[in-house]
Amino acid sequence: MRKLRLGVIGLGQRGSGLLNTILNTVPEIEVVAVSDNYLDRTEDAAKNIKEKRGIDAFKTTNYKELLERDDVEAVLVSTSWETHVSVSIDAMNAGKITAMEVGGAYNEEELWELVDTYEKTKVPFMFLENCCYDH
Question: FRET partner for 128 with CA separation of 20 to 30 A, picked from 68, 91, 103, 134?
Answer without folding.
Answer: 68
